[in-house]
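Incident review: delayed structure delivery

Summary: a single-chain prediction request sat in the queue longer than the usual turnaround. Root cause was a stuck worker, restarted by the on-call engineer. No data loss occurred. The affected request and its eventual output are reproduced below so the record is complete for anyone auditing the incident later.

Affected input:
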Amino acid sequence: MPRERRAGGGIDRLPSGRYRVRIVTPDGRRLSLGTYPTKRAAEVAYARSVADHADGKRANPSAVTTPTLADYAPGWVDTRLTTHGQPLRPRVRDLYADQLRLHILPRLGTVRLAKLTTPAVRDWHAELRGPDGPGASTAAKCYRLLRSILTTAVEDGLIPANPCTIKGAGTERAPERTIPTVAQVHALADAIDRRMRCLVLLAAFVGLRKGELLGLRRRDIDLKAREITIAQQRQVDRHGRDLVGPPKTDAGLRTLALPAVLAAELESHLGRFAQADAEGFVFTGVKGGPLAPHVLQDAWSKARADVGLPDLHLHDLRHLAGTLAASTGAGTKELMYRLGHASQQAALRYQHATQERDRAVADALDRLIDRTMDRNVDE
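Output delivered after worker restart:
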């Protein structure tokens, strides 16, 4: 249902099926009365606000019965837009829905927004980080989601201020991951199903994300120029449906040069396993269809166990690609481009020099110092 615009406000139906009521106060402020399960309930809330205005009562967040977090949050997910003004990707919506269902609403769902306090948020966050909770990383993700939801509630005029003011609560401090060696990558490529050998090499030496690898099409590869273009990614939602769309960020759209040895591997793969037409997918399953993520994960788990790296993640290969690129002397901008990073902060992690590169720097400093000392002696 499109929004019903009325003098002083309106009612609109959200994708979730709930009805949202908005009013315009006499002083020109836009104020949300929250969401309601039926149109009738929304009509009653709207009529009540109109009657209050007629009686000279001023609507404000403390006077309006604010919705509970469980009432408000689903509508927020349904209507949330990205920084580029696009609807959330289905996988992101699913992630937010899971975080709400599993970790946020069981404890805070029945609390009305106006009653949600910083101490209550602090206690909830501490529980998530505690010994019986999902851990610090999940706690930080859920805190960031709750903070974003309540920021919108402030903008809607439902609460005067956001109670999520705990310093550092939304910061993740992920432990350092083990980066495989080049020899280990070759061992993994030899151990995995032959249809995925080239996928492992592209992840480790070019730094493509899993979704970018699964989304590669034959037309994206120019063997003559030794180039590969990242134009889309492919994921699968919880219902098994293919989700093909642009890369994670605008920076993900890029054309990359391939090492000669990898171009040769890719040429062999295209001749044996890729779908035949230009739009065909590069990585396929045994029946010739697009490679399914769960099939890749099963093959990866077996291969990493076979080579004695049971805890290695596929994404760890991307970290190796970044480290190798940095060891060649690539600068921050070059790393950002090659890895499809939108921020310098993400690329800077790979400029922590490898031990081999650090030794080369030390040797160069030795030569520089020796030359300087020789000149001083001669003088």
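Verification: The mean pLDDT is 84.
Action items: add queue-age alerting; document worker restart procedure.
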